[in-house]
Amino acid sequence: MEERRVPPDRLRRRVELESLPFASTEEVSPLVGTLGQERAIEAMQFGVGMDRPGYNLFATGLSGTGRTSTVRAFLGEIARQRSTPQDWVYVHNFNQLDRPLVINLPAGRGRELATDMESFILQARQQIAHAFETERYAERRSQLATEMAQKREPMLDELNRFAREREFAVKATPNGIVAAPIREGKPMTPDMLEHLPESDRQDLERRGSEVQNELAMTFRRLSQLEREGHEKLADLDREIARFAIESLLQVLREKYSGQIEIVAHLDRIGEDIPDHLPDFRNAGPQAGGREPASPIEAAIASDHTNRYRVNVIVDNLGLKGAPITVESNPTYYNLVGRIEYRATFGTMATDFRQIKGGALHRSNGGFLILEAADVLRNPFAWEALMRALSTGQVRIENLGEQYSSLPTASVSPAPMPLQTKVVLIGTPALYQVLNQMDDQFKELFKVKVDFAPEMDWTDESVAHYAAFISRCVAEKGLHHFDRGAVARIVEEAGRWRESQHKLSTRLRDAADLATEASYWADRESRGLVEARDVERAVAEKERRSSLPEERMREMIVDGTLRVETEGARVGQLNGLSIIELGDHRFGMPSRVSATVALGRGTVESIDRETELGGPIHNKGFLIVSGYLAATYGQQHPLAMRATLTFEQSYDEVEGDSASSTELYALLSALAEVPLKQHIAVTGSVDQHGNVQAVGGVTDKVEGFFRVCKARGLSGDQGVLMPTANVPHLMLSDEVIAAVRDGKFSLWAVDHVDQGTEILTGRPAGQRRADGSYPDSSIHGLVAQRLKTYARLQATFAPSSNGTGASPEAPSKPARPRRATARARQR
């Protein structure tokens, strides 16, 4: 038993203060980059350097390991070394009004172009309005009017002559121009027409018909002449307008001469403005024109001139290097953009100016960082992201138009070419699900950036931790830490990983601990954080979250929960559980009991039968059954019925770390040898009886220690654990002091035989050549009990004539079930 006792110097690893080459963090340069993530950095270097489609990155790892901050810092260095990408703008499409054009310009020139076009519209209004007020324009317009009059008068003279020859006069009336009969130069009255002889009346009608025909023909020629006049006048107006804006356009053409698409667009504007002169000639007083007569007129004019404006979608003015976009709310519209609408006279209208870009647009030519879970939570966002990456372009489409059963009046913007490196951040479980379920994901995210939860505990890593604390001091304005405080934080990082050889890389926890330790140092008016401040920060944080643990411990002490820490009992032993409450994790003992009776070789778990056993616990229980069969069922059947359970347990039991506890309790019940109740047990077991490592051993030991301390330390109490878990111990100073003073003990075993001897004080027994065990050994007593059961079962065997009875019906094998909730791990 003594050789299995774990010495105090193996219960925790400490940082030797002499190994720290500084007195405080004032002498330590702040950490640059991340801590213990060499593999992740190498993966990011590969993914960013691979300029091929599909090599986007998925950064995975536990929360708090610095995934997002490391990715941003790394990409920030890369982005600064790259050239700034181009701006993107949408402009009006004069050929297809509902399909705006997308044009790229050098960085910063998108906004410049938009400003230039605003200035152009204002100057065009002024120039055009001024051009139509010049004497030259008035003279040419008067000249056209004179030419029209000169062509119109001969036609009218000829019409009058033709009418007079037939004794008719042409005159204007409210109903138009008509021809009326005359006699002796005067119009004939109705009375005169009524008394005309029939032959004269017929002759008058014939002459009147000839005049009407001539009148209609003349007016057709006059209408044609009027149209020609209007066309000439419109041509004159267009010519004047072109002349007025040509110098403005030429300045812009020269300024953007290197942008072919912009020059072509300016040419189309020069062709379009002369066809919409009322929008410019009716400008307000500032432009030299008149005020619009009504809001409708102003809206119409505004709508027409807006087609010459520019909608800047991506503006990289002032950006140094490539963009890095972090979209914290990756909805469909926030990713790919949207088309907005505005109310116009009772209806909803839109145009290219209502197009709004998304995160994919802003990150074009750079990097886009997204939380994978956030993208998946937003409807249609994941599909939109995959579609954009697979097609290499981002298309702005409103969801309402895609899924509406009725067509809607909208615009269809031209898609923008996409050259963005996307970095998704998520958990390892999410990465595995996406990798297995989404083939497109595997094609588009070929680079896995795995952030490790731990790193080797070396002098170099301790130095890096000190540099990280120095960075926290600088960034958060904390007090500096002396070497003892730094060592205490490093040791706590070892406790988080439950290892004497590894340190946690969950830098968020380390930063929080440093912040809280600085707070307590400040409360004590200390300018330098010491080890006691770190210890107080740890203790205070535990106190804030440990109320459920204290309540459960009180229930054990007052007997509400039956856990014995003294004496010996047959078929009963204290197992150790880990209870997870989100913000707090702690170990707690619970009573495991076993009963045996005559039966047909069944071993039942009550927790399994009641669906409180999780799949891993059920596996551990079945391994116990396998061990019994292999050890004792070689020469005679196991004629027994055994039951095992966790007493007063009402939540799901999960994990296999109690399988050795169950086996000890079962062997005790079969051998009728009591087990020491002042020893709690943890460890899993295989079918050959080897004791295997489990998780949470530090919390389990400390949990049982606190219960024993509350009841009074007797010096016999302790924990039986796997030898493989000794390197995982990072026990508190209080537990280590109790072990050193002989008030508490830990024993490490490799096989159940070693544990049985410690728990019973009897030898386990070695199998002899004939397969038997020493009579007084544990194995010998178990074998004798099982042999007795076998003989008893034989007396109840059915007779040859079919009579006889069985003491019990064969039990139906229980089917493993998965419970719906998990509150404990053992």
Structure in words:
With 826 residues, the chain is of the alpha/beta class. Among the domains are: 9-36 and 453-545, Helicase, Ruva Protein, domain 3, CATH 1.10.8; 37-83 and 321-360 and 372-451, Rossmann fold (3-Layer(aba) Sandwich); 564-797, Ribosomal Protein S5, domain 2, CATH 3.30.230.10. Helices cover 46% and strands 16% of the residues. It contains 28 helices and 33 strands. The strands form eleven sheets. Strands 23, 24, 25, 26, 28, 31, 32 and 33 form an eight-stranded mixed sheet that branches. Strands 8-13-16-1-17 form a five-stranded parallel sheet. A hairpin with a 4-residue loop joins β23 and β24. The protein starts with 37 loop residues before the first helix and ends with a strand. Mean pLDDT is 87; it is low at 283-289 and 800-826.
Which terms summarize this structure?
826 residues, alpha/beta, disordered C terminus, elongated, Rossmann fold, 16% strand, five-stranded parallel sheet, Ribosomal Protein S5, domain 2, Helicase, Ruva Protein, domain 3, 33 strands
Give a brief outline of the structure:
This protein has 826 residues and is an alpha/beta fold.
**Mean pLDDT figure:** 87
Q: How many strands?
A: 33
Percentage of residues in strands: 15-25%
Class inferred from helices and paired strands: alpha/beta
CATH class of the domain at 564-797: Alpha Beta
Coarse shape = elongated
